[in-house]
Amino acid sequence: MKRGHIGLLCAGHLVTDINQGALPAMLPFLISGRHLSYAAAASLIFAANFSSSIVQPLFGYFADKISTPWIMPLGMLLAGLGLAAAGYASNYWLIFTAVAISGIGIAAFHPRGAQLANNVSGEKKATGVSIFTAGGNVGFALGPILTTPLLLIFGLKGSIFLIVPVLIISIIFMIQIPSLLQKEKEESSKITKRTVTSEEVKDEWNCFLKLLGPITCRSITFFGLNTFLPLYFIHVLNQSKTTGSTALTILLVMGAIGTLIAGRLADHYGQRNVVRVGFGILIPLLIIFVNVHTVLTSMILLIPIGLTLFAPFSPMVVLGQKYLPNHMGLASGVTLGLAVSIGGVAAPFLGWISDNYGIRQALTCLTILPVIATIIAFILPKPKIDLLKVKQVQAEA
C-alpha cells in the first residue's frame, strides 16, 4: 500500500464530503434566513441524498465497465458548486435544486474513489479503505467548522468559499490520475500472481443484500444525528448555533478516529467482528443520550457514540467489495451510495416527527436501528473469497 496514493484519495474524499457536512450546518441559517420549517429543511437533506442514491450505483456500474478517472475531479467540483449556489438561491425550490446537484457530484466521486482505495491497498484493504473513509468523515467534521463561521460573518452568501478546497484538490487529482492508475495496475498484477482472483469465486448476492440491512440502519442513524444534532442542542438544550455546530463536529471528529481504528482492527480480527462489536456498543449509548438533559453529559456521550457509530462503516464497505468481487465498483456505489443515502431519504420523516412531537422524540426513534443492525451482523457469513485465500495459504504451507 502506497500511502501517497491513499492520501490523495483521502484528500479527495475529504473535500467532497465537506459539502455533505456543510449542509446540516447551513440548516439553522436557511431556517431563519429563508423561513423554512423543520420538515422543509430536512427535505434539503433528502434532496442531496436522494439525487446521490439514484445515480451513485450507476456510477459504480460504469466504474466496473470502463475507466472513468476524470469522474472524480468532476464530482468534487459539482459537489462544491451546488452547495455554494444554495446560499445564493432566493427561494426554496432553487435551494432544493442546488443541493440535489451537489448530491450528484458527491455520487460521482465515491464509487471510483472507493474502488481505487481497495485496489491500491494491496493486502491491507480494510486499512486502506478505512483511511479513504476517514477522509470523508473528516470532511463531514470540517463542513460545520468551516461553514458556521463563514455564514455568521458573510451570511448565506459565505457558502461561495466552499468552492475553494474542491477546486484545489480537483486540479491535483487531474495531475496525479496517471500515477494512480499505474499503481492500481501494479497491485492488480501482484494479486493475480500470488492469490485468489475475483474470477475464481462467484458474486454472493444474497450475502450482499443482507449486508445492506446494517448499512441502512447505520445510515438512518447517522443522518438523523447529522441533521438534528445541531438543532437538538439549539432548540431543546437552549444552546447557541456555535454550540450546536460544535456538537456535530465532536461526533464527526470522533467518527474519523473510530474509522481509522476500525480499519486496523478489521484487518487483524475480521470485518464482521468489528461490525458486530460497534453496533452492539452503540445500542446503550444512544438510549442514554436521548434520556439525559444536561449539555455537558450530552457532549461527553458524543465521544463514544462517534467512535461506535463510524467503526462498522469501512469494514462493511470492504465486506461489500468481497461479497461482489467481480462487481467491486457496483458494490462500492451501492454501499457508499444507495444504502447510505437512505438515511437522507428518511430525514423528512424525522423532520415530520420533530415538527409534531419534538426533536427528542425523533432522536429516540433512532435507538431501535442499532439493535436491528446487530442482529443482522451476526448472521453475515464469511466471504467466500476469504475462505478460498485461507485454503490456498494452507495448500502452499
Task: Give the assembly state of these chains.
Answer: single chain
Instruction: Report how far apart the termini are.
Output: 25 Å
Give the helices and strands as they follow along the chain: HHHHHHHHHHHHHHH
CATH architectural type = Up-down Bundle
The CATH topology assignment is Growth Hormone, Chain: A
Q: Give the count of structural domains.
A: 1
CATH superfamily: MFS general substrate transporter like domains
Shape: globular
In percent terms, what proportion of residues is strand?
under 5%
Q: How is the biggest beta sheet arranged?
A: none
The overall pLDDT average reads 86
Helix amount, in percent?
over 70%
Poorly predicted spans: 192-196
Task: Note the total helix count.
Answer: 15
Quick one: CATH class? Mainly Alpha
Number of distinct beta strands: 0
Rg, Å, rounded: 20 Å
Name some characteristics of this structure.
single chain; 397 residues; mainly alpha; Growth Hormone, Chain: A; 15 helices; 0% strand
